[in-house]
Design a protein that fits this description.
Helix content is 65%, strand content 0%. The protein contains two helices and no strands. Keywords: Membrane, Transmembrane, Transmembrane helix.
């Protein structure tokens, strides 16, 4: 009853690692566009909140 269980565990670890790497790559690709970064930069960063 243990046939193949080790391979399933390895597959789950590899799949999780691939998702992590894909997330990092996507964040790097998004952050490369300086125009898009400046457009989405918070306008009130560093300003005092006055209600």
């Amino acid at each position: 009853m243990v046939a193949g269980r080790g391979w399933i565990a390895i597959a789950l670890v590899v799949f999780a690692a691939l998702l992590y790497v894909a997330t990092i790559l996507l964040l790097v690709l998004i952050s490369r566009d300086q125009k898009l970064l400046k457009m989405n930069f918070p306008a009130s960063l560093g300003k005092t909140f006055l209600p």
